[in-house]
Design brief:
two-stranded antiparallel sheet; about 5% strand; mainly alpha; 2 domains; 10 helices; single chain
């Protein structure tokens, strides 16, 4: 696990190449490439689909980052204030612009998903396309991109799991897991590493990969337009309900009556998938 792959000194700047950012970039490239390949197979307007993919990536990244910044606003404000007090003008500027440092980690998947779900029907309607057909085309690759994203989480040491007495993973000093556990739960540290934690990032990556395979299979056998989207929403909701049971980053989850907000959203996704299935199956049948 290497959060930082390389450190470069360039024109007086110390630049760090983060593995999290590389995994995210790899996921975006793979998702877009497979979407365009699928569009060609279906005889879709590849140029139009490519434009949709690029805009959706921008919107999803913005939504994912915005939700992360909102849920961690006090930390960003404190870092900016400390930078102004203790660092040079350049250092203070760097600290105060960390809200834009996506390559360091800090994307909330639900924020990107909600933004994407809102964007697709708007974009499709504006260009005279079927939103349900476009969503079906994109859904499998969203799952694949999410798999890459969770591998990035594992590399960065974020979204970690609860301590386990069985097989687990320990994150080194300097990782997000170690830094936050050092402040909130020192008992979860063992010297320069954390104690063994559930590798929940890998659990969710595996779930997302299985979802990608299942959705790709369904895409060639669907009975109505929108069915792949429905399956994605239901499938990911079930994956998230399960993986949340092993999450350990409690103070990011804003628990409500013992249930995390992510679990509540997952229940809402299940309800939405049922409502969409009832609505779409009689309106958008595949010819």
């Amino acid at each position: 696990m290497h959060p930082i792959l390389y450190r470069l000194h360039w024109f007086g700047w110390d630049l760090e190449v983060h593995s999290y950012g590389l995994w995210i970039a790899a996921g975006c490239v793979a998702a877009v490439a497979l979407t365009l390949r699928r569009a060609r197979q279906l005889g879709e307007d590849v140029g139009m689909v490519q434009e949709a993919c690029l805009w959706m990536l921008c919107v999803a990244m913005l939504g994912a980052r915005l939700l992360y910044v909102l849920t961690n606003a006090p930390q960003f404000a404190r870092a900016c204030a400390d930078g102004i007090k203790t660092q040079s003008a350049t250092g203070a500027l760097w600290e105060c612009t960390r809200v834009f440092h996506v390559w360091e980690g800090g994307l909330v998947f639900y924020g990107g998903l909600v933004a994407g779900l809102a964007f697709v029907p708007w974009w499709a309607r504006r260009h005279g396309l079927s939103a349900s057909r476009l969503a079906d085309l994109l859904a499998p690759q969203v799952a694949l991109g999410h798999m890459f994203g969770r591998l990035g989480c594992y590399a960065a040491g974020c979204c970690w799991g609860r301590p386990t007495d069985g097989h687990g993973v320990s994150f080194p000093r300097g990782s997000l897991a170690w830094n936050e556990l050092a402040a909130s739960n020192p008992a979860a540290l063992a010297g320069n590493r954390t104690v063994a934690l559930y590798p929940v990032q890998l659990y969710e990556a595996a779930g997302a990969l299985l979802l990608f395979v299942g959705l790709s299979w369904l895409a060639n056998r669907k009975r109505y337009h929108g069915q792949v989207l429905v399956a994605y929403l239901a499938g990911y909701a079930l994956v998230r309900l399960i993986t949340e049971l092993f999450r350990g980053d409690v103070d990011r989850r804003f628990l409500v009556a013992g249930i995390s907000t992510s679990q509540l959203i997952a229940v809402g996704m299940l309800a939405l998938s049922i409502a969409l299935a009832i609505t779409l199956r009689n309106r958008r049948k595949v010819a």
